[in-house]
Amino acid sequence: MTIKLIGFPYSGPTMRVIITLRELGLPYEFETPANFEVLKTEDFLANKNPFGKIPVLFDGDFRIIESRSICRYLASKYQGKNNNTILIPNDVHKAGLVDQFVSFEIFYYDPPAFKFVSQEVFAEKFWNKNPDPEIIKQGREELIKVLDIYEKLLEGKEYLNGEFSLADIYHSPYTHYVYGVAKHSELWDSRPNVKNWWNRLRNREAVKKTLEEIP
Amino acid sequence: MTIKLIGYLYSGPTMRIIITLRELGLPYEFETPANFEVLKSEDFLTNKNPFGKIPVLFDGEFRIVESRSICRYLASKYQGKNNNMILIPNDIHKAGLVDQFVSYEIFYYDPPVLKLVSQEVYAKKFWDKNPDPEIVKQGREELIKVLDIYEKLLEGKEYLNGEFSLADIYHSPNTHHVYAKYSDL
Predict the structure, then answer these.
(1) Which residues form the GST N-terminal domain (chain A) (predicted)?
(2) How confident is the model at residue A114 (pLDDT cuts 50, 70, 90)?
(3) What pLDDT sits at residue B167?
(4) Which residues of chain A does B152 touch, with a Cβ-Cβ cutoff of 8 Å?
(5) Do A32 and A58 fall within a single domain?
(6) Could you tell me if B182 and B117 are in contact, meaning their C-beta atoms sit under 8 angstroms apart?
(7) Which end of chain B, N or C, is less packed with Cβ atoms under 10 Å?
(8) Chain-chain contact of B95 with A108 (C-beta, under 8 angstroms)
(9) Are A96 and B103 inside 8 Å of each other by CB?
(10) Which CATH number covers residue B63?
(11) How large is the average pLDDT for residues B121-136?
């Protein structure tokens, strides 16, 4: 049964899946579409993703899309099989809180982080546009409020819900882009709990390797 | 062990949970904050939700926020206990596809629907503003593309992933808000 992942190595969503595969010790094949136009072809829309996006994962004949759904599926099916890494706690209350942190990531953390990423990393590289300072300013203000809350939530904890989980993986790609690529490290480093959390996270083997592979 | 839900009856996220509680046959207490300012008070931020939002659910002493996380928790813990309603399939592949539809709801369906809800339902009622026709137009155009995709995905199926699931519940509140005016879509 082969796992095949289709995506781009610099894409945040693709990176979530790659980190998860590596954390679970799962072998996989990786395929990169030739260009963006491929994603809008009849074949791609019919057989890979009706919304014309990556990543797409095949586990044998089973196809699944949407990065966080893919990661949750992989953890549900494979965690504990190849190694001892548990990404979704077995305890229903702990699992609920991990899911709560996933929701925080989707609705509170990612949107402002992505404002930085879109303007300072992607705008020139892919869209031939200059960064929009207004968007960056909004991103910074919103992210600061969120990181202040995370500083409290991380008190006394190594990872968001205590033990390492899917929620920590999901935060990694865009944090890296804003911290390491766009170089706004002070936002994390000025908050001791947040700083320690990110340091711990980005030095995990699976995370580190994936981030280093960004072209 | 009492389940207590704090929220507003007209709020989409609160409605997702109420529907889930009812589908699972779970009794619960419902509490509405006196006003919006309560949500920003020290007490609320510390003891209920650090992000100052509703809904908030207490299951005994266990507290959880974020509507879809609350619903998933309730289904994981209670489904099959009070009745036969299964909201998260036991089969891993089916569960994965339900989760995929939940992701569609979050990223493709809800944003354009919310554009319509915010302008046509909330603007006058809460913000004393007229609907912005530009936002309404964008919302409509995006939603039409999504509904065209859903039309194909629903072919031969009663519900999004065949059998009724959490994904169908999540789509309900905001669809209802918009359907009254935009049923043609």
Answers:
(1) 1-82
(2) very high
(3) 98
(4) 50
(5) yes
(6) no
(7) N
(8) no
(9) no
(10) 3.40.30.10
(11) 87
Q: What is the mean pLDDT of residues A149-156?
A: 98
Residue A87 maps to a domain: no
Residues above pLDDT 70, as percent of chain B: 100
Does the residue B84 lie in any domain?
no
Are residues A74 and A96 located together in one domain of the fold? no
Q: Report if residue B87 sits inside a domain.
A: no
Whether residues A22 and A60 fall in one domain: yes
More confident residue, A65 or A121: A65
A76 touches chain B (CB under 8 A): yes
- Which tens digit of pLDDT belongs to each residue from B131-162? 899 999 999 999 999 999 999 999 999 999 99
Residues B154 and B102 in one domain: yes
Q: Is the domain of A166 the same as that of A66?
A: no
Q: Which of A50, A51, A103 shows the shortest C-beta gap to B68?
A: A103
State whether A99 and A74 are in the same domain: no
Judge whether A185 is closer than 8 Å to chain B, CB to CB: no
Which pLDDT band, with edges at 50, 70 and 90, does A188 fall under? very high
- Specify the pLDDT at position B76: 98
Report yes or no: B132 at the A interface, CB cutoff 8 Å: no
Q: Which pTM does this prediction carry? A: 0.96
Residue B176 pLDDT class (50, 70, 90 cuts): very high
Q: Residue B41: give the domain boundaries.
A: 3-78
Q: Which of B73, B96, B102 sits opposite A96 (nearest CB)?
A: B73
> Is B69 part of the contact surface with chain A (CB cutoff 8 Å)?
yes
Q: Which residues of A touch B150 (CB under 8 A)?
A: none
Does any CB of chain B come closer than 8 Å to the CB of residue A65?
yes
Instruction: Please give the tally of structural domains in chain B.
Output: 2
B13 in Cβ contact with B64 (< 8 Å): no
Mean pLDDT over B60-73 rounds to: 98
* Number of CB pairs, chain A paired with chain B, less than 8 A apart: 76
A72 and A136 in one domain?
A: no
Q: What is the CATH number of the domain that holds B153?
A: 1.20.1050.10
